[in-house]
């Protein structure tokens, strides 16, 4: 609504809000625990991944615009969705269900991050877009110069996940 | 079960409509609703507000769980349409959304939303919500 105020885009606040959002979503909805990772730990975890990666993006618009972008290996996406739905770990998901569940994870992180950033702002979130990256792609080979506001690297069950917030309207 | 006392009034099963564009969230809510120790009738599902209205037009529903951010017709638009219809005034309205902002909550309250649950939520929260709204008795 038009009464919305723009939140202060302080890097520390952005980072703290993202960390809180990521932990809340992971632990409260998906029942998984996130471990912070520094560059070296993240690179090591990425190096162990032999599977393809998924990228889930949720664009948002409001007093400022941008996109939350989450990259994770497919097995982690599978694990998140089966955990959310209380399924057995060895149950296989179809691609639509896996993509939908991973997109919802990104949607929750985006919404939780924006809510924690400011209580007095209204944002509209777009429908999540989930894509499978080409074989051999990893977050380490991506050019990250593009309008990056915050980056958070974590591991979940020893599998790597990267969360980026980009400014501007375009999702990846 | 309490033989000799007056028989308890038969509780009418609660028909529920879940509105969310995410099939995963609909599946989750469907499962969580089943956790409530309540007689649940039919659980209808719709991927957006427009499809939800079609179900409300044709089916008997007592409680609507709706997301807000959805394509075609979003949750606020759905709630505005529901508010126009006198025959739906007693419908229980529960918003389940990632948007936890004060402004959005106020907007929802003005549209007669009974409860506003912020995602992420623990399954017990939705179960407890159902118990509260369906009966004055504790579940």
Description of the structure:
The complex is a heterodimer of chains A (172) and B (139). By secondary structure, chain A is of the alpha+beta class. Chain A has a single domain (11-167), classed as 3-Layer(aba) Sandwich (Chemotaxis protein chec). Chain A has four helices and seven strands; from the N terminus they run αβαββααββββ. In chain A, strands 1, 2, 3, 4, 5, 6 and 7 form a seven-stranded antiparallel sheet that branches. Chain A is globular, with a radius of gyration of 15 Å. The model of chain A has no long low-confidence stretch (mean pLDDT 87). Chain B has 139 residues and is of the alpha/beta class. Chain B has one domain (14-134): Response regulator (Rossmann fold). Chain B is built from five helices and five strands. Chain B has helices at 23-35, 49-58, 75-84, 102-110, 123-134; strands at 14-19, 40-46, 63-66, 92-97, 115-118. A five-stranded parallel sheet of chain B has the order 2-1-3-4-5, sandwiched between helices. In chain B, strand 4 (92-97), helix 4 and strand 5 (115-118) form a beta-alpha-beta unit. In chain B, helix 1 crosses helix 5 (123-134) and helix 2 (49-58) packs parallel to helix 3 (75-84). The longest helix of chain B has 13 residues, at 23-35. The model of chain B is unreliable at 1-6 (pLDDT under 50). Chains A and B meet through helix 1, helix 4 and strand 4 of A and helix 1 and helix 4 of B.
């Amino acid at each position: 609504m038009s009464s919305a105020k723009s939140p202060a885009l302080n890097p520390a606040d952005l980072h703290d809000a993202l960390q809180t959002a990521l932990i809340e979503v992971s632990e409260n909805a998906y029942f998984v625990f996130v471990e912070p990772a520094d560059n070296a730990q993240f690179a090591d975890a990425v190096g162990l991944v032999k599977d393809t990666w998924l990228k889930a993006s949720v664009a948002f618009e409001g007093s400022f615009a941008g996109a939350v972008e989450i990259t994770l290996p497919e097995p982690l996406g599978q694990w998140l969705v089966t955990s959310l739905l209380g399924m057995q770990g060895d149950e296989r998901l179809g691609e639509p269900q896996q993509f939908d569940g991973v997109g919802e994870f990104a949607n929750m992180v985006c919404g939780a991050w924006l809510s924690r950033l400011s209580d007095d702002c209204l944002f509209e979130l777009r429908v999540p877009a989930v894509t499978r990256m080409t074989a051999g792609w990893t977050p380490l080979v991506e050019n990250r110069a593009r309008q990056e506001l915050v980056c958070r690297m974590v591991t979940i069950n020893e599998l790597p996940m990267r969360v980026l917030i980009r400014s501007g309207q375009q999702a990846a | 079960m309490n033989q000799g006392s007056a028989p308890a009034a038969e509780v009418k099963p609660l028909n529920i409509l879940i509105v969310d564009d995410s099939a995963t969230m609909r599946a989750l809510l469907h499962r969580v609703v089943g956790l409530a120790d309540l007689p649940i009738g039919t659980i209808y599902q719709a991927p957006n507000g427009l499809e939800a209205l079609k179900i409300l037009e044709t089916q008997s529903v007592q409680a609507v769980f709706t997301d807000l951010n959805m394509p075609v017709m979003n949750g606020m638009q759905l709630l505005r349409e529901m508010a126009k219809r006198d025959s739906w005034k007693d419908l229980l309205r529960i918003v389940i959304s990632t948007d936890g902002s004060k402004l959005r909550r106020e907007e929802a309250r003005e549209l007669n939303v009974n409860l506003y649950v912020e995602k992420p939520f623990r399954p017990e929260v939705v179960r407890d919500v159902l118990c509260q709204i369906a009966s004055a008795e504790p579940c």
